[in-house]
Amino acid sequence: MAIAEDKIEHKVWGFLKLPFRNTHSNLPSNYGHSPAEGSSASGSSVSSVARSLLPARRRLKLDPSNVLYFPYEPGKQVRSAIKIRNSSKSHVAFKFQTTAPKSCFMRPPGGILAPGESIIATVFKFVEPLEDNEKPMDQKNRVKFKIMSLKIKEPVEYQPELFDEHKDEVTVERILKVVFLDIERPSPALEKLNNQLAEAEAEFEARKKPSKDTSTKFVGEGLVIDEWKERRERYLARQQEEGG
């Protein structure tokens, strides 16, 4: 059972009908365009405004859709998993971001998926020990994750810089919130998480093997993980020195 879970607010976009007055009756007959042309221009303007109000169309389907479940084990590194599927008709690059890069990392942190292709990504997080009067909810609210997508128009190798070079075309797929699970109390969410983690580990081992035909391109994962481990070891060493 989840220790705490945020209520996800769904925003529903709607269109407001704007009143328009017929201004042609007060204009001279030789003003330069007919009422039909004016109506067409107004209609085009309203249409562009309406399109700007629409939320960006998502290219990825996520499971879970808006949260990341983590086992609640203070003082330990824990893992979550999320399935990412390209639901569009084009190749799509994806990229993870987090508000806590010093205590979290993603494997893979990004990649390119062919239409209909999916992977299960693993998210690693160090759960800080609770401080005085602190609750698990406080820790959960401090960390969020973001998944972004970018339509790929031609075959390329994945590089994080793609999102900087085409930032106007980037879509924020989802802001993912952290939910802690009590490992002492079995639940469907905990069982599903364990199954996804097992699948993710199998996929990761399979990607290590050379393959002649693969459409999914990932950034160098080992470098990201090694850098994170070094930062974590330095942090723990400082904590022990201060405690001693």
Percent strand equals: 25-35%
Our Rg estimate from Cα atoms comes to: 24 Å
Give, in order, the helices and strands. HEEEEEEEHEHEHEH
Question: How are the strands of the largest sheet arranged?
Answer: 2-9-8-4-6-10
- Helical percentage: 25-40%
Cα distance spanning the termini: 37 Å
Q: Overall pLDDT, averaged?
A: 75
- Poorly predicted parts: 4-37, 220-227
- Tell the overall outline: globular
Structural class: alpha+beta
Largest sheet: 6 strands, mixed
Count up the helices. Answer: 5
DSSP strand count: 10
Q: How is the secondary structure organized here?
A:
Layout: H1 35-53, E1 60-63, E2 67-71, E3 77-86, E4 91-98, E5 104-107, E6 110-113, E7 118-126, H2 136-142, E8 144-152, H3 162-165, E9 171-181, H4 188-208, E10 217-218, H5 221-243
Parallel strand pairs: 2-9
Antiparallel strand pairs: 1-3, 3-7, 4-6, 4-8, 5-7, 6-10, 8-9
Descriptive report:
The chain has helices at residues 35-53, 136-142, 162-165, 188-208, 221-243; strands at residues 60-63, 67-71, 77-86, 91-98, 104-107, 110-113, 118-126, 144-152, 171-181, 217-218. It has 244 residues and is an alpha+beta fold. The longest helix is centred in the C-terminal third of the chain and has 23 residues, at 221-243. Residues 4-37 and 220-227 have low confidence and may be disordered. The strands form two sheets. Strands 2-9-8-4-6-10 form a six-stranded mixed beta sheet. Strands 1-3-7-5 form a four-stranded antiparallel beta sheet. It is globular and about 55 Å long. The chain has five helices and ten strands; from the N terminus they run αβββββββαβαβαβα.
